[in-house]
Design goal:
The complex is a heterodimer.
Chain A: H1 2-30, H2 33-41, H3 45-52, E1 61-64, E2 67-70, H4 75-80, H5 102-115, H6 122-129, H7 132-138, H8 148-152, H9 163-174, H10 178-185, H11 188-194, H12 203-207, H13 227-232, H14 240-243, H15 258-291
Antiparallel strand pairs in A: 1-2
Helix pairs in contact in A: 9-10, 10-11
Chain B: E1 9-12, E2 17-24, H1 28-52, H2 57-66, H3 69-100, H4 104-107, H5 116-129, H6 143-167, H7 169-172, H8 179-202, H9 204-210, H10 220-223, E3 225-227, H11 228-234, H12 236-245, H13 248-251, E4 252-257, H14 259-290
Antiparallel strand pairs in B: 1-2, 2-3, 2-4
Helix pairs in contact in B: 1-2, 1-3, 1-8, 1-14, 3-6, 6-8, 8-9, 8-14, 11-12
The chains are: A mainly alpha, B alpha+beta.
Chain lengths: 301, 292
C-alpha cells in the first residue's frame, strides 16, 4: 500500500517536472536569440520615416541605375500598400538609423535589391531566376532586365491580382517592348483592353508573369508545344489552327505578315478609289445644282 | 411641309377630307426593310468604329455612352443578327421575285441589275456636270442607287462572314488556319470604313439629302409614295414605260391628307435629322482620327 502511494507520488512529481521543463523550454524558444537581438538593434519604421518621410527630403536624391531618385517615401502610401506592415529593414537589410554611406546604399542596390524579395517569396523568385529576365540579370552576359521592383514597384506595392495592377501591365512591359505593345493593342485583346475590358488577355496571361521565356524555349508558355494550352486557358477547345492566330502582327507592314498586309493594301486602294470617285461625283453634282439654280426650285411633298 | 403645288388634288366636299393621287415608289416591305437597315447600321457603326479608332477621345466617349466595351459588343452582335435577318429576308424575296417572273424582273429596265445604260448614264452625268449635255433620264433606279444597293448586299456578306469568324473563332478554326482571323479583322475593319463612307457620305446620304432633286430631304422611303408630277420628273423613263405598258394604275394611290400626314412628316424629319447628325458626327470623328 505505502509502496503504491510512493509510486504515484513519484509519478506525479516526474510529470510535474516534465511539464515544468517543457514550459521553460517553450518560453526559451519564444524568446529566441535572433528576436531578442533584432528587438534591441533594428530600427523601427518610425526611425526610418523620421528622415525619409519628411517632405523636405523630396529633393535629396541618390543614383539608381544611372538615374536620380528621390530618397523620400510617402508613409501614407507605404502603410496602405500590401507590405505596409513590414519593417523597412526586412527589405533594406542591414540599414541603421543615421546617414547611410553611398557605398552601403550602392552595395545594397547591387545585390540585396535582387534577393531581398526572395527571403519571403522564394518560390516566385526561383521562377523569376530561371526566366529570360532572370537570366539577363544573373547570367553571364548580364544585360538590362527588370527586377522584382521594376514591375511590382518598391513602396506602393499593389496586390498583383488587383484590377489596378492588371490595368498597368501593358505599360510595364512596354517600357522595353514598345513595338509588341503597339501590335498587341491593335489585336482583338488589345483593343478591348485599351477601352476598359478587364477580362481580356493581357501580356502576362499568354507570356506568364515570373517565368517568361522566349518562344524558342520548349518550357515557354508561347512555345510551339504549349501555345494551344495557353490559348485554351480562356478558349477551351482551342486547337493548332486557333493558336496559329498572330497576336503581334502589323497589317501595315508587308514584312510582318505578307498575307495580312496584302488584304490591308487591297482595301486601302479600294477605299481610296471609291472615296475619290464619290467625292468628285458628289462635288460636281452639287456644283451643277448650284450653277443651274436647282436648289432654289420648290421641293416635292 | 407637304406642298400641294403641282400634285393632282381631289377634294370630296362633304367630309372635307383632302386626298391626293400619289405614285407609290416603295411598298411596305421596302419601307420596313429600310428601317431595319438604318437602325442596325447606325448601331453597328457606333459600336464598331470606336474599336478601329481606339486611340481617340471620341472612342472613349462612345464606349462610355454604350456602358463599356463589353456592353457595346453585345449591342454590336444584336445589330449584326438584325442585319443577318434583313439580308436573308431580302435575298429570299429577291429569289422568289426572280423565280416567279422566270427571270423577267432581272431583264426589266426597272431592275437593280447593272446594265449598259448605267455606264452611259454615268458618262452622261459627267457630261451634264460640265455643261456639255442634257441630264440623262433615269428609269426606276439610277446607277448610284444600284451601286448603293449592290454594295450593301455584297458588303454585308463580306462583313458578315468576317464578323462571324471573329464571333466564333473556335468554330471557324476547326477548318481554317489562324491567319484567317488576322485577315478577318483587317477586312471587317476596312469594309466597315468603306461601307460607312458610301452610306454616310458619298452615295446614300448625298442622294437622299444633298442632291438638288432631293434637298433637303427625300422622305419617299418613309412615306412610300410621292406626288406623281415629281416622280415623273425624277424618273421619266419608268413613268413613260408604265404609261406605255398600261401598268401605271398599279402604282397610283389615293393618299388622304390628314393631321396624321403632317405628324408623320415631323417624325420623318426627326428620324432623318438624327440619322444625319449621326452621319456627320461619325464622319467628323473619322476625319479627326485620320488627321491627328
Amino acid at each position: 500500500m505505502t509502496r503504491l502511494r510512493y509510486a504515484v507520488l513519484a509519478a506525479l512529481l516526474c510529470s510535474a517536472a516534465a511539464l515544468g521543463f517543457a514550459a521553460a523550454a517553450s518560453a526559451a524558444a519564444t524568446a529566441s536569440p535572433a528576436t531578442a537581438q533584432s528587438a534591441l538593434n533594428a530600427p523601427s519604421n518610425d526611425d526610418c520615416f523620421r528622415c525619409h518621410g519628411q517632405q523636405s527630403v523630396q529633393n535629396r536624391t541618390i543614383v539608381v541605375d544611372g538615374r536620380q531618385k528621390s530618397i523620400f517615401v510617402d508613409r501614407a502610401v507605404y502603410d496602405a500598400s500590401r507590405h505596409g506592415k513590414l519593417a523597412c529593414t526586412s527589405c533594406h537589410l542591414g540599414f541603421k538609423p543615421g546617414p547611410h554611406g553611398a557605398d552601403q546604399t550602392q552595395a545594397w542596390l547591387a545585390t540585396a535589391k535582387l534577393t531581398a524579395c526572395s527571403n519571403c517569396h522564394a518560390d516566385v523568385f526561383a521562377m523569376y531566376r530561371g526566366s529570360f529576365h532572370g537570366n539577363l540579370v544573373f547570367g553571364e552576359s548580364s544585360g538590362k532586365a527588370p527586377v522584382c521592383a521594376d514591375c511590382h514597384v518598391a513602396h506602393n506595392i499593389t496586390p498583383p491580382e488587383s484590377p489596378a495592377f492588371r490595368a498597368s501591365i501593358d505599360s510595364l512591359c512596354a517600357r522595353c517592348h514598345a513595338e509588341q505593345l503597339k501590335t498587341y493593342l491593335d489585336s482583338y485583346h488589345g483593343k478591348a483592353f485599351y477601352l476598359g475590358d478587364a477580362k481580356t488577355a493581357v501580356c502576362t496571361d499568354c507570356h506568364g508573369g515570373h517565368k517568361i521565356l522566349p518562344p524558342s524555349d520548349p518550357q515557354s508558355k508561347v512555345s510551339q508545344q504549349n501555345l494551344v494550352a495557353t490559348c485554351a486557358q480562356c478558349h477551351p477547345g482551342a486547337n493548332e489552327n486557333f493558336a496559329g492566330f498572330m497576336v503581334h502582327v502589323d497589317p501595315q507592314s508587308p514584312r510582318s505578315s505578307f498575307a495580312v498586309w496584302t488584304f490591308y493594301a487591297l482595301y486601302i486602294m479600294l477605299i481610296a478609289v471609291v472615296f475619290t470617285f464619290g467625292f468628285v461625283h458628289t462635288a460636281l453634282y452639287i456644283y451643277r445644282g448650284i450653277k443651274d439654280g436647282l436648289y432654289r426650285r420648290s421641293r416635292h411633298g | 411641309m407637304a406642298s400641294t403645288g403641282e400634285a393632282v388634288t381631289a377634294e370630296s366636299a362633304p367630309q372635307k377630307v383632302r386626298t391626293r393621287i400619289e405614285y407609290r415608289r416603295f411598298n411596305v416591305f421596302h419601307r420596313w426593310m429600310h428601317f431595319l437597315v438604318f437602325t442596325s447600321f447606325t448601331v453597328l457603326v457606333f459600336t464598331g468604329m470606336p474599336l478601329k479608332y481606339k486611340d481617340t477621345e471620341w472612342a472613349r466617349w462612345s464606349m462610355d455612352l454604350f456602358g463599356g466595351v463589353t456592353a457595346a459588343g453585345v449591342y454590336h452582335r444584336i445589330a449584326a443578327l438584325v442585319t443577318v435577318f434583313y439580308w436573308t429576308l431580302e435575298f429570299v424575296f429577291m429569289v422568289v421575285m426572280v423565280l416567279r417572273s422566270r427571270g423577267k424582273v432581272l431583264r426589266s429596265p426597272g431592275s437593280m441589275m447593272p446594265s449598259k445604260k448605267d455606264l452611259q448614264d454615268m458618262i452622261g452625268m459627267f457630261a451634264w456636270f460640265f455643261g456639255k449635255g442634257p441630264k440623262p433620264q433615269f428609269d426606276r433606279y439610277t446607277y448610284w442607287e444600284k451601286f448603293d444597293y449592290m454594295s450593301l448586299m455584297a458588303g454585308t456578306v463580306i462583313i458578315g462572314m468576317t464578323g462571324f469568324m471573329m464571333w466564333f473563332p473556335l468554330w471557324f478554326t476547326k477548318v481554317l488556319p489562324g491567319i484567317f482571323l488576322n485577315i478577318a479583322l483587317v477586312i471587317h475593319s476596312n469594309e466597315a470604313l468603306l461601307a460607312m463612307g458610301v452610306i454616310f457620305i458619298f452615295v446614300h446620304f448625298f442622294s437622299a439629302h444633298a442632291r438638288p432633286e432631293s434637298f433637303p430631304l427625300d422622305k419617299v422611303i418613309f412615306t412610300g409614295s410621292l406626288p406623281v408630277e415629281h416622280y415623273k420628273a425624277e424618273r421619266p423613263l419608268e413613268f413613260a414605260r408604265r404609261v406605255r405598258e398600261g401598268t401605271l394604275d398599279e402604282v397610283l394611290v389615293e393618299k388622304r391628307i390628314t393631321w396624321r400626314t403632317y405628324a408623320a412628316d415631323v417624325l420623318w424629319w426627326i428620324i432623318t435629322a438624327f440619322a444625319g447628325f449621326c452621319a456627320i458626327l461619325m464622319t467628323a470623328f473619322i476625319i479627326w482620327s485620320v488627321f491627328t
